[in-house]
Amino acid sequence: MNDLLQFLSFSDPNVRFVTIGTMILGATAAMVGSFSFLRKKALVGDAIAHSILPGVCLAFMLSGSKDPLVLIVGAFITGWLSLIIIDGISRTTKLKNDAAIGIVLSVFFGFGILLLTSIQQSGNAAQSGLDKFLFGKAASLTQYDILVFSSIGIVLILVLLLFYKEFKLISFNPDYAKVIGLPVKFLEFILATITVLAVAVGIQAVGVVLMAALLITPASGARFWTHRLGTMIFIAMVFGAISGFFGSFISYVAPSMPTGPWVVMCLSFLTIGSIWFAPKRGMLAKYRVQHQNQQKILKENVLKLFYHIGEKENDFHAERSIEQLLKTRDLRPTELKKGLHLLKSENTVRNKDDKWLITAKGLNEAIRIIRLHRLWEMYLNQRLKLEPDHVHNDAEAIEHIITPEIERQLEKELNYPTKDPHQSIIPYIKE
Amino acid sequence: MDAFWIILSSSLIAVTCSLLGCYLVLRKMAMIGDAISHAVLPGIVIAYLISGSREALPMLIGAAIIGVFTTVLIELFYKKAKLQIDASIGITFTWLFAIGIILISLFAGQVDLDQDCVLYGEIAYVPLDLWITDAGVNMGPRTVWISASLLILILSFIIIGYKGLFLTTFNEEFAKALGIAVGFWHYSLMSAVSLTTVISFESVGAILVVAFLIVPASAAYLITHKLKEMLILSAIFSVLSSIGGYYLAAYINGSIAGAIASVAGILFLFCWLISMYRKRNNTSRLILNSTS
Amino acid sequence: MEVALETHNLTVSYNRRPVLWNIDFKIPVGQITGIIGPNGSGKTTLLKAIMGLVKPSSGYCKLFDQDLKQVRERISYVPQRESVDWDFPASVMDIVLMGRYKSSNLFKRINQSDRDIAVEALEKVNMLEFSNRQISQLSGGQQQRVFIARSLAQGADLYIMDEPFVGVDAATEEAILNLLTEMKNQGKTVIVVHHDLQTAKDYFDWIVLLNTRLVAVGPKDDIFREDLLQEAYGGKLNVLSKVGDLIKEKGFSVRERK
Fold first, then answer.
1. What is the CA radius of gyration of chain C?
2. B214/A103 touch (CB, cutoff 8 Å), yes or no
3. Contact state of C24 with A386 under an 8 Å Cβ cutoff
4. How large is the ipTM?
5. Contact residues on chain B for A272, CB-CB shorter than 8 A
6. Which residue from C9, C246, C257 is facing A403, i.e. has the nearest CB?
7. Considering only alpha carbons, which residue of chain B is nearest residue A261?
8. Could you tell me if residue A418 is inside a domain?
9. To the nearest whole number, what is the mean pLDDT of chain A?
């Protein structure tokens, strides 16, 4: 707990620096990743990340320096090379994109590991500290490193904002972008360059192995909250920044721990949470809608019982017993009682002990549903040419869905019918 | 002698991987293979934590089940949550892999595993872990025996299931229409892949196993039109990569698994060039034919 | 009339949205039937529902008055040519032999009689000389003929083909047509999904006219009427698509749960 307070107080300037830095890296990657996600190139980011390892190692071997600018140049070159090769393989061979990604990812990474282990064996592993590129170690970054990486991150964010509209268009509708004369190839080149750079700086926080998550996971989670691209990118960036914050915190309280896995845990937590709990698009929201649908169907079905008995006996206002209601339709007694109580709370039915009767409001509602049912039967019979004995089951489902607008359209198309295919009267609500 | 044992065991593992890899490539599931190989990590760590050793076979099978679970999880994200497939794969395997790494660092004392091992294995130590029978007979390195058994298992799966794998890989809908349990073949293959990654884990690590799975198979695919040839060629490439990789690693003093992946990459490059060359020749021949 | 295929109130949804509404028809044995309709009218989906490849939201199909499971070996399915990857490393013979695969013999070796049947099937589509050719080296028409040969090798009574005439050369078209006639003469039933109205009249005896709902079904002379064609090709029913959108949007199921 003390650790947390001390961490949050930001009294240590280094902590402040590292935290803000990794948050910027997380947000940058999330922003760039949103476009990769929308362009369905999420796994390409994984390949770029893995391909950066040999670049970093080569840059170190050739220059002997750990200057972040030097390492980024190496990372940039092999990162871009991986994109070119993936594209080349899928264009010139019968191999599909996923195999191309897998080949590039694993061979580059294998080569990177070969170089890395060779550097380590040669004795200057301690100085190089290159292995932090594997799983990330935020706290070990120097202020200078952070300065360089965050500046690059901020520049990337600015460039993305500058080309926001264009990138949006080539992500959603590349053909249209081409038609209206946008330089699609050039824009794709810029976007790819930004992606490579974002990955190159992002691996400082999470390492090459898990970098894909920093690109894909925030965007996937954000997608569940909104349809709007701007909002989605913003939410993804917030996810990325929170995870960056969390990562540097872990790095501070548990110095022996790699940062990357914890960042990814935090991201996965946020995203899986979004998948479940996001309003409207989340899984729970979907289940809730389904539950509401079922209740609506149940209520409407129970109201129809009153109508059917009323129609047969030519008396809509008499009291009905549970047994009588059950006889009319194959419904479980518990279901029926549940439906009746739901309806009672809406004042569409009333009861005296075990006797139930429909109110005026309820009758209107029942007429509406019966009307929709019979209209739909008529529609199936007339337009889909179904036999009268084939239309009932379908109408049982569709009657609960039809809106007033569709109702009017049905009436008009069927020329205001008064009887359904079984010659029952199509009722209407008397004013 | 050490060189022989190392090359033999890595060849056995690489051949097993590449045989399965042929089917992954043809089914366009290369990245699912990648995902499984990452995702078995938490299973392996938990298996070690519970059994306290590396050898308990039942535990390794348990770990392999987690690999199959990965594919179920990916399908869940894809079908239930309606997330696009590449993102479903990406989220799932990074998450499970992160759990594995966290477990390793949390229980560093109890688990005889480290992060390096996760990445590229310890194939150089193969000759040190000998199988000595109760009677005191030295049977050679334990890994060689394990990987040889695995190879025989996978080989029999491919031979016995040849028709089923062939049919469901080429044309799943037709297979379904014939009333064949497509899901059975899918999950059998996934189980085979996860069992193989779990067992290869010690020697080559969780990540480089992807190179073993995909690269030789893809290289073979580029230069042949016959499934049987593809399987055999990929096995040959695996052995070549193992031999070449061993000496490359020795030469620059680096990871053997990393070197094998690099050599496999070079072989792939060769096959790519051959296929391009053939294609160009074919096109020019076609042009000649049409003008004559 | 003896019925080869019956669909009963079949509703099929894709992504929760109904793409086929209450399809209800019967097709007689021994005829060549064309399922005709504009693009996106649900023709392929209908075949998939018949073959059990997609699950209907409601309704059912009967083949020879039985469930698919009981008559599977009497039914042969020819998927769309584009539905497979022709770069697959296999020879023409390998593919045709697949027609002899069954769930009961999947672990047995292919025997000589299977091979003889495959050779015979290849002969029928004039592809015997290509039997060792790799499938990646075939033209579109040849690919289609290989698929049909595979289907012939099954020795079925009912053949269900998805767009066999798309992208094939004139020779293949004629070869397929001859085959269809020959099959008919042997008392087999053929159901073909076809999108080209112009040629449909020459190819088929019976027509199922489809556009997300059944427009008409019957002998071709009854169906090729201006008003019916107009109805099938004159666009979707407005109300139907709106209700379909609502079902998807609100997450309703097409059939009430009992």
1. 19
2. yes
3. yes
4. 0.93
5. 95
6. C246
7. B98
8. no
9. 88
pLDDT recorded at residue B286? 58
Last residue of a domain, one of A278, A310, A326: A278
Using CB atoms, pick whichever of B161, B170, B177 lies closest to residue C88.
B170
Residue B279: its chain A contacts at CB < 8 A? Answer: 92
Chains touching C (at least 3 CB pairs under 8 A) are A, B
The per-residue pLDDT for C181 is 93
For residue A218, give the nearest of A165, A169, A180, A273 by alpha carbon: A273
Q: What is the mean pLDDT of residues A42-65?
A: 91
Residue length of chain C: 258
Q: Residue A102's domain is classified under what CATH number?
A: 1.10.3470.10
Domains and CATH numbers, chain B: 2-207 (1.10.3470.10)
Per-residue exposure over A288-300, b if at least 16 CB sit within 10 Å of its own CB, e if not: eeeeebeeebbbb
The answer to whether residues A85 and A145 belong to one domain is yes
- Shared domain for A308 and A195, answered yes or no, is no
Same domain, A116 and A84: yes
User: Which subunits sit against A, judged by 3+ Cβ pairs under 8 A?
Assistant: B, C
Q: In what order do the strands lie in the sheet with A320-321?
A: A320-321, A355-358, A349-352
Q: What's CA A409's distance to the chain center, in Å?
A: 36
pLDDT tens by residue, C31-49: 999 999 998 889 999 999 9
Domain boundaries, chain C: 3-250
CA distances from C152 to B11, C94, C118, C125, C139 (A): 44, 14, 8, 9, 20
More confident residue, B150 or A205: B150
pLDDT, average across residues B86-114: 87
| Whether A174 and A34 share a structural domain | yes
Residues of B within 8 A of A107 (CB-CB) are 211, 215, 261-262, 264-265, 268
Domain hosting A317: range is 285-358
Q: Considering only alpha carbons, which residue of chain C is nearest residue B220?
A: C89
Any idea what the CATH number is for the domain that residue A340 is in? 1.10.10.10
| A93 lies in the same domain as A230 | yes
Per-residue confidence (pLDDT) for residue A393, from 0 to 100: 83
Q: Is the predicted pLDDT of residue C69 greater than 50, yes or no? A: yes
pLDDT-derived band at A390 (thresholds 50, 70, 90) equals confident
Whether residues A35 and A131 share a domain: the answer is yes
The yes-or-no verdict on residue B288 having pLDDT over 60 is no
In a domain, A344, yes or no: yes
Is pLDDT at A431 greater than 60 in this prediction? no
Overall residue count recorded for chain B in this entry = 292
Number of neighbouring beta carbons within 10 Å of residue B112? 11
Same domain, A39 and A136: yes
Chain C residue numbers with beta carbons less than 8 Å from the beta carbon of A394 are 9, 11, 22, 58, 254-255
Split into its structural domains, chain A has a count of 2
What is the nearest CA distance from A21 to chain C, expressed in angstroms? 43
Q: Does the residue A378 lie in any domain?
A: no
Q: Is the CB of C55 inside 8 Å of chain B's CB atoms?
A: no
Closest-CA distance, B167 to chain C, in angstroms, reads 7
Q: Which chains neighbour B (Cβ–Cβ under 8 Å, 3 or more pairs)?
A: A, C
- Indicate the pLDDT class of residue A270, thresholds 50, 70 and 90: very high
Residue of chain C with shortest Cα separation from A394: C255
* Domain end point (choices A328, A358, A388): A358
Q: List pLDDT tens digits, range A170-211.
A: 988 888 888 888 888 999 999 999 999 999 988 888 888 889
Shortest distance, CA A123 to any CA of chain B (angstroms): 11
Q: Is the pLDDT of residue B292 over 60?
A: no
3-state DSSP assignment of residue C4: strand
Say yes or no: A311 and A270 in one domain. no
Question: What pLDDT is attached to residue A124?
Answer: 61
Residue A215 lies in a domain: yes
Question: CB contact, 8 Å: B254 with chain A?
Answer: yes
Instruction: State how far the Cα of A269 lies from the Cα of B95, in Å rounded to an integer.
Output: 9
Residues with Cβ within 8 Å of residue B80, at least 6 apart in sequence = A283
C230 touches chain B (CB under 8 A): no
Class of domain C3-250: alpha beta
**DSSP per residue, C85-119:** -TTSS-BHHHHHHGGG--TTSTTSPP-HHHHHHHH
CB contact under 8 A, B174 and C77: yes
**Amino acid identity, residue A161?**
L
